[in-house]
Design goal:
This protein has about 190 residues and is mainly α. Helix content is about 70%, strand content about 0%. The protein is globular. About 35% of the residues are buried.
Amino acid sequence: RTLAWLVAGEWESQKEFLGPHSLPLTSLVSRAIDGLSEPAARADVIAKLLKYFHTDSVCLHDEHPRALVALQQQHYAPLVAWARAAYGIDVATTTDMFALRQAPAATDALRAAVGKFSPLKLAALERAVMAAKSFLIGLALVEQRISAEDAAQAALVEATAQTQLWGELENAHDLDNAAMRQILGASACAAMDA
């Protein structure tokens, strides 16, 4: 019911032109209804999302610079600990991007868990993973373990560390970051109603 009010609000706020960026919840609901009801489509989406788990930045922990290490500790370590505890899996972490390999048992457990998601929750996960470019961030968001803002901060760890180190370029990524936050917020809202 809450989601219906939010979708109605999106439509009421439309003015002269419709744009996909102005209807993020409508887009999620449409994706759930039109694209994620069939078992084969669901399996395909889940397989594509699990590819992000095997390259997840949350599992890549650098040894320097200190600012990046501190941010990874602050944002990534709790997500890894949560996933391990919540799903009873071993989430591999490494300092070598090319050495990251997740165990088949971990992937299978996550596939089984996500396979139980409603079409709406799966659509929310899909959008969150694509926006954050991280399976674990998206999963924690739709499982209501973290907020949309926490998800955005985790997704921006590397950019934040670079800004701390080198300074900020005015307006460099403002639109991208705002769009990501909008998608993560819509995903969080949809998952609460799923």
